[in-house]
Amino acid sequence: MAGAGPRGGAAVSDDTTPSYPTALGASTRDSITLLGQDLAADLMGKVGFGELAFWLVTQRRPTPGEVRVLESVLVALADHGFTPTAIAARMTYLSAPDSLQGALAAGLLGGGSRFLGVTEDCGTFLDGVLAAHVAAGGALPTDEAGWEALALAAVRDARAAKRFVPGLGHPVHKDGDPRTPRLFEIAREEGLFGPHLSLFEAVGRVHEEVLGRWLPLNGAGVCGAALADLGLPVELLRGFALLARTAGLLGQLAEERRRPVGMDIYLHVEHGATSVPPGP
Hints:
By secondary structure, the protein is mainly α. Helices cover 57% and strands 3% of the residues. It has a domain at 117-237: CATH 1.10.230.10.
């Protein structure tokens, strides 16, 4: 029957085809567009990957200064040695060398509240303090004393609620994380040292008064503050940490191919396993 659709039903006319609008990638037979640009002519060879990632998320092209800060964050978070994420990737590659994507995914899935997730947690914490302060009618501080007062109140509130202050402390860099002062410096050079970094820096100066001991401002935390000052959504900051770590994990897997240690790690744990009675 003319006009009949599948299984004898009515034909679906073209004007009822669902529409799924997107400002990201789309393609025709002879072209690809991305962010409203011709991918081949306007972007390839002209836009860096970090710049593109920023553009994809914010829907605006970043300034050169914003690109420099973002790229500095990505470099800072790319690799930090034999972290649990790196070990997970190497162990998965040992078990399934035919599944590179599985090894990368295993490493990325380990990005949580102790590793990598601190970037998002710190940005969210700082953003929440700033938003609450403004909502209560307060103006953003204009000097160190003002930032320190706001930071002191935030640390005291966190302590009273028995919550950790994200971005404080590091298991290795106990005397200071070298990434932190460098990112402060870069953000200042680019005129992008905003309220999140100002508050984070002040937390570093006052927290000892509340906690009773000094802790370093860690690199993951300062990266979260810097990304938030770029105007990136705090809910997506962990994604940028994972984007950076993907490159590091790829490097870990490449090194595992050249100089494998996965089997040694596995056998070290296997040979050290001891049987104990079941129970708590």
